[in-house]
Structure formats: structure tokens, C-alpha cells
Amino acid sequence: MIPSAVGGGADLASPPAAEPRRRTRNGPRRSARHRGYLVFLLPGIVLSTAVIVVPVLMTLGISFTRWQGIGRPEWIGLDNYTRLFSDANFWASFRNIGLVIVAMAVVPTLLGLLLASALYDHVGKAYGGRAASALRSGLYLPQIVPVAVTGIIWAWILHPDYGALNSILTDLHLETLARNWLGDPKYALYSVMAVLIWMQLGYPVVMFMAGLQRVDPELYEAADLDGASWWQRFTRIAVPLIRPEVYVVLVTTTIAGLKIFGQIFVLTRGGPGNATLVPSYFAYRNFFERAAVGYGSAISTVLTVSIVLLTYLFLRLQTRDERLGGW
Amino acid sequence: MAIAPASARPHRDEPPAGRHPDPAPRRRSPARHVVLLGLIVGVLLVLAPILVIVLNAVKSPADYASNGPMALPDSFHLQGIVDFWNRVDFGRKLLNSLVVSGSVAILGVGLAVLSAYALGIGRVRGRIWFLVFFLVANLIPQEMLVYPLYYLSKSLGLYDSLLSVIIIFTVIQGAFGTYLLSSVFAQFPRELLDAAEVDGAGRWRVLWQVVVPASRPTLAVLVTFFFVWTWNEFFLPLVFLISNDNQTVPVALGVLQGQRTMDATTTSASALLGIVPAVVFFLVFQRTLTRGVMSGAIK
């Protein structure tokens, strides 16, 4: 959505504020006030049903069949799923997605916290906000470069023969370090992870710097008077205060990581072997390259269930955290 | 994507970092200079890949062959860009992307406004469930939708048309917009609505003459987001737009990149052509985007 990042990730962290219920005892006022709105909901419901609900149910149904996209699907029950759970490619894709999430959510969040704090607390205060904003924009630029272009840039930089990275290493007389970055199963996934970190870093920085606006400057001044170190100011003031942003960033980037497709498609097509295979590309391959629509539907279903469950868990965790007075 | 939580504490409306004069600038010690220097080097490293692309996009193939990718170009060579542009009919791709992203941005926000009006202001019965529905709709990965949509659009004769992609993304982005706008509209000042009602305005008139004008900043942010997100979408357009005349910019670049038939300068030229529109949007929309990222602006 964003994502950025990330295609569209919703602000999961906060269900819309519900007004305290007015106790009108279903009096005429309430009903009059709330009448005649249903018609406005119709276009949204009808279109969402046609474009989202029906396809989801179809995919779910197809996942219990063997089908090549033409003719009649043949009902095979849970066969696709049993085959899936004994398929090495499937497990590889889920293992890879774990590392993708580390690269898209965990590392950028941690680095982003440090960078945002340094930009806000150090650069912003000692060198003026202009400098901080300029650096922030620089970090954010990779976020707005289209995925396809990211693929072009990095496939070329990491190319084994004429890539910029290996030619720099050669110029520094470090030929021994030159590798086939995207073509060697040992390094391909780590190379992809490095590219993902590069892409994602700007998003948490922007979000966290926005959150740091809420910090009361007096808090920092008081901390300064008490002789707090930079690290203490960071861990005791900045991080606890921007907890909501941390949640939003973690949720949205994790979901974006689970859905990742474009980056893998343009960098490695899941290869070499299945070294960088991810569920979405695995499904794509079955749908459009192997005409195994039933199997692809089973993969998509497992992916969808994982995403919905994970989001639910995140929201539960967060409400608990807020209730405990996290901030 | 980057919408700060509405549950965050209301905070004073401060201008974004970098606008307000610092009351008491800190002393600039040597240690601070080192930190700043480290940050600048880090940001330059992040920007380096993009800079390298720009360098090589304006090099002649001969220059590239003799001096390698890291040297400064010895002349300003635009032929690679022109050749690539003509080879892929890039103007056509740009137009396709503009049509798709522009339509989705406007239609998606329109759809979201209608639904959010019913949910956030109308508070229709069962609105929590509708909200959960739109939220889940937004979470669903496109792989879960793609095959049935591909199949259905083929049987409707919409396959390989910009219209199919526009409809699909309008609904997907609209679901997110509904979720977000519902929480914004829930805070809408009742007095304004009541005043309009006393004047005898119907539901439609209240929407167009009261609600929409009052939420213009938020809607502008949403239009911006939808436009940029749709512009960068890759998966569904890749599946749906197979003929050359219908491809969007990212699909054209992504597919070409798989062919590996291009020399390095042409590759750089193609990447540059992909980056330029994105950077232009970024500069044009930066204010809107920055405001969108600030949680205070979205309310």
C-alpha cells in the first residue's frame, strides 16, 4: 500500500471512535435522525460484493477442486490442502515470507525509531528543521519509486557480470567478495531483504517523526536538566509516546510483507530454485503458468486466513496494551 | 497507508517538523557534527542507487563501455531515453497510467464518501459489522480475488481493458477509504448537520453542500493516496492488461525488465522514465502527503 509501502493498509490500530450511546429509548428523534441513509451504502455494498465477496467465495470453492481454468472443476475435497502441506515449495515460501517480514517490518521499524529520534532530537534541534526535513525526504524517496523500477535498478546493480556493486568491489581490489547476488541460492534471499530494507526505511521514519510532534518539549527539557543521556531520552520518552505509530507501522508493513509480489517478480521470479519463493508468487505461478487453478486457490486461501488471523491478533494485543495504560 | 492512528491523543496543531523556529537551539558540539555527518552519509547511500541510474541514463553506450557505470558521463546523451521512449511507445503507457490512476482516485473517493456518510454520520444499524466488512475487504490479498475476476471479466468481455482495472481498484481503494472516512465523519460537528436539516435540506444536499466542502482537506489527501497507490500497482494490471496498448507504466517496465535484451544505458533510461513521474508526484503532492501523514490533519 503503501504501501507503501505498501499498497493500501488500513489504519488498523483504531476502530472509528463510537460516540457514547445517547439514551433516546428508541424515541422518534433518533429514528428520524437516522432514517434515509441506507441508500448511500448501496453502491459500496453492491460493488464490494461483486468485486470482493463473490471472488473470495469462488476462490474458496475452487480450492476444493481440480481445475485448469477451462471445462468443469472436479471436486477433490481437501486434496489440494494435503498436497500443499507436504509440498517443499509451500514451506519454503512461508519460511521466506518470515525473512521478508523481518526485512520489511522489523528492521525498518527499529532503524526507523533510531533515525526518526536522531533527526528530530539531534538534527532538528541543533541544525534546524529544514535539515531534518531534507534528510527525511531523502530517506522517503525509495518508497515512491515504483516497484517495477526498483526491480530494474537493483537487478542491474546486483548483476553478476556488469553490475555496479561487483564493479565497485573490483575497483577496490575486493574481487573475492563479488558474488552472483541474485542468482546464487545462498545469497539471493539476503539480497532481496537488503533491497526491501532500502525500500521500506522511509515509511517508519516519516510516521515516527509525525508522532514525535506530540512529545511535549518540556519533557525533554526536564530530562535535560536531570542529565538524562540521549539513550535514556530515546527509550523513556520517545519510544513510549509514539507507541500508536509503532503499532500502525508494524501492522501495515507486516501485512504488506505477507502480500509481497511485485518486488519478487521483478527481482528474482522466486528463484533461483525456490530460494526467494513467496506465497503470492507461488499462487500466481500455479494460476497463470501451470494452469493449476485449484492448487493456486488453496495457496491463496491459506495466505488470506494467515493475514486475517494475524491482523486480529495484532488488534487484540494492541487493545490489551492500551488498556494496561501503555501510554 | 501512512495514516496515524485516530486514537492518538489529540495534540496541539503544530506545524510539521522543520517549520517552526526552534525556541532554544542546542549547542552544536563536535559529537553532534559527527552524528549529522553519519546521517548525511547514510541518506546519500540510500540515494546512491537512484543517482547511479540518473548518471547512466544520460551516457552513450560507448562511454559506458569504456568508463564503466561509476564514471561521470562525458557528454549529455539523451538518445538512449528517446530510443526507449519510441521503442515502447512510452507516451501511450503514461496516458494509460494517468487514466487508470485518475479515475480510481476520483471514483474511489466518491464511493468512500457515500458509504462513510451512511456509516459515520447516518450511523445505520449494524454499522460496526459494515466497518469490519470493509476492513477485511481491504486486508484480502489480491491473489484471493484474481482468478475469479480474470474469469468473470473474460466472460463479460472486459478482459484486457482499462475499465476492468479501474472498477476493481475503485472498489478496493474505496473499501479502505470507507473505513478511514467513517471515523473522520463520526467526529463531524452535529450542529452543522442539524442547522442544514432545520433549513429543510435533504440528505443529498447535506452531503454535497455541508459534509463534502467541510472535509475537503481530508478528501484531497485521500485522492492523492489513491492516485499514487494505483499508479504503482503491479500485480492486477500485470494479469489484466496484456496487450501492449493497454499496459500501464509499471507493467511495461516490469515485463521489459524480464526480457534482459537491453543494454545498461537503455536499462537506466527506462528506470529514469519510471522514476520521473513518481518524483514529480512526490513534489506536487508533498504538502498534501505530509498533511496526510500528520494525524492532526486527517481529522
Structure report:
The complex is a heterodimer of chains A (327) and B (299). Chain A is mainly alpha-helical. Chain A is 68% helix and 1% strand. In chain A, strands 1-2 form a two-stranded antiparallel ribbon. The longest helix of chain A has 40 residues, at 88-127. Chain B is mainly alpha-helical. Chain B has 14 helices and no strands. Chain B starts with 29 loop residues before the first helix and ends with a helix. Chains A and B meet through helix 2, helix 4, helix 5, helix 6 and helix 7 of A and helix 1, helix 4, helix 5, helix 6 and helix 7 of B.
Brief rundown of the structure:
Chain A has 327 residues and is mainly alpha-helical. Chain A has 15 helices and two strands. Chain B has helices spanning 30-57, 61-67, 79-88, 90-121, 127-139, 143-156, 162-185, 190-198, 203-214, 216-232, 235-240, 249-259, 264-293, 295-298.
List key phrases describing it.
heterodimer; A: 327 residues; mainly alpha; two-stranded antiparallel ribbon; 15 helices; 2 strands; 68% helix; disordered N terminus; B: 299 residues; disordered C terminus
SSE blueprint and pairings:
The complex is a heterodimer of chains A (about 325) and B (about 300).
Chain A: H1 28-33, H2 38-62, E1 65-66, E2 74-75, H3 79-85, H4 88-127, H5 129-144, H6 147-157, H7 164-171, H8 188-200, H9 202-212, H10 217-225, H11 230-241, H12 243-258, H13 262-267, H14 279-289, H15 293-323
Antiparallel strand pairs in A: 1-2
Helix pairs in contact in A: 2-15, 4-5, 4-8, 4-9, 4-12, 5-9, 9-12, 12-15, 14-15
Chain B: H1 30-57, H2 61-67, H3 79-88, H4 90-121, H5 127-139, H6 143-156, H7 162-185, H8 190-198, H9 203-214, H10 216-232, H11 235-240, H12 249-259, H13 264-293, H14 295-298
Helix pairs in contact in B: 1-13, 3-13, 4-7, 4-10, 5-7, 7-10, 8-9, 10-13, 12-13
